[in-house]
Every structure is written in structure tokens, then in C-alpha cells.
Amino acid sequence: AAETPKGHTLHPHTLLTQDKKTRQPQRMATTRTLSALLLVVLLGSLGVAAQSCTTPNDCQFTAGKPYCYKGSCVVCNPEYSLKDCDCPPGSYCVSSPNDPNAGSCQEYQSSIIGRNCDVSLKDMGMTTINGVNDAVFCGLVIYNTNYTAEWVEWEGSCQKGKCFECSSAPIPTLPFAYCSDGRGCIVNKLGYAPVGVFSWAFALKSPLFLSFYGIIGTTLLGAFSILVGFFGVIYFRQKAINRASRSRKRSYSNTSARSDYEDDLPLETENLIN
Fold it and tell me: β-strands 72-74, 67-69: how paired?
């Protein structure tokens, strides 16, 4: 028997009942957790089995994963030169051969974009050393255990000491198509611009693009005005020519009619008229 704070004695059966009530929710929570883990493992194993491949044709009907890479259907092809084009703008295709996530799309690391960088390391990722100059390289480098570079996952654009996704150089107002889906570098960030400089994405991001639109609009308006003036002159000139031609025809018709009338008159009447 046990005593309560007030000194009352509790029956052992009462204690057993309370203990069961306390342990029952804990057991139910544990059961639910184990069931959830089992379900995740089961779905994961089924997913891997469904996405396995031996030839490229095996991925034909795998939604969103059309490439066969190292026995699995993946989102992007790590061996393709434009591998990042298979991923949404702002993401890259994981391509390190030793990375278990190779063939998947990952967002550019926010810890790299916008940080300070050394422009002299452009295209020099494989020469960087972990712990020495890796933090000032504009991109993501995978390093070996001896601190040397093993793989460059992606490289951005270092401009004025800041790391950006891409470069708008050499002509910011003319887009450079990185991929065939219409994406381009819009103010140092990848985005969709299907019709190039005529896309709203350019006009809404930079005042420079707005001025470019103004120049284009003024040029088109001037060209349209010239065309309207040119065809207007031709139209009114032709209209004046037609009017003069009709006037001459009427004058000639009246003269001919008068001559015919005079020819029909007797000589005496004609002399009187003259």
C-alpha cells in the first residue's frame, strides 16, 4: 500500500489501474512511431525498386525521372554538359560521382550566393584547397580528405567581390539563353524570359531594361510615323492625280460635245455664234 500526501492509503489494485492508464498512451505512441517508420522504409524500398534501371528505356514511364544513371532513374543527367537545364531555375544537378544524391536537383546554397568571393578564382575550382581559399570561391566544391578538390558541383559568377548565380555580361540588355526552355540570366539571377528582352521579367527587374524598352518604343513609333507619312503622301498624291485626270476628261468631253454641236449648225448660224 502507498500513502497519499494527505496520509490516505491507496489500495494496490488502485495503484495497478493508475499505472496501466499511464503506460497505455506511451505504448500507443510507440506503436504509431514504429508503424510510421516501417511504412517509410517500405515505401522507400518500393520507390527504389520502381526506379531501378539497366537501360535508358527502363525510365521511359518513370514520371519526372527520364534518365538512367548508375542503375536508377534520376531527374537530371549528371554526365550531360548542360545538366542544370533539367532542373528549375535556381537549382543545379548534383553530379559528383560519389554523391548518393547524384542525378537529383538541389537549390543553390544560400550560404554561397551573396557571400564575398575572389574573382581571380574564376574557373579555378579544382585548384582551391579546403580551409585555405575554398570560402572565397563562387561555387560549390567537393573536397577529398586531404583537403584537395575532388569535384566542382557548380560555379556562379563573381562580380565586384560578390557571388551571384550567373552573369548578365557582356550586354545586360541582351539575354543569353542558357537552356532551350527560354531561361536566361536576369540581373545575375536565372529566370524564364521566353521572348528575350521583350519579356516582362526584364522590364520589371532593372531600370536599364526599362530604358531599353523606351528606346525600342521610340524607335518603333518613329518608324511607324515615317511609314504613315510616306504612304500618306503617296495616297494623297495619287488622289490629286486622279482628280486632275477626271477634270481633264470632263473638260475634253465638254469640248468634244461643243465641237460636234457646232458641226451640225448651218454656216450662217455658226458665223453668228462666232
Answer: antiparallel
Decide: residue 74, CB within 10 A, 0-12 exposed, 13-18 middle, 19+ buried: buried
Contact call for residues 128 and 69 (beta carbons, < 8 A):
no
Give tens-digit pLDDT for 104-130.
999 999 999 999 999 999 999 999 999
Q: What is the mean pLDDT of the chain?
A: 77
Contact residues for 71 (Cβ-Cβ < 8 A; gap 6+): 52, 53, 54
Residues near 209 by beta carbon (within 8 Å), at least 6 away in sequence: 172, 173, 197, 202, 203
pTM of the model: 0.57
Chain-centroid distance of CA 136 in Å reads 27
Amino acid at residue number 74: V
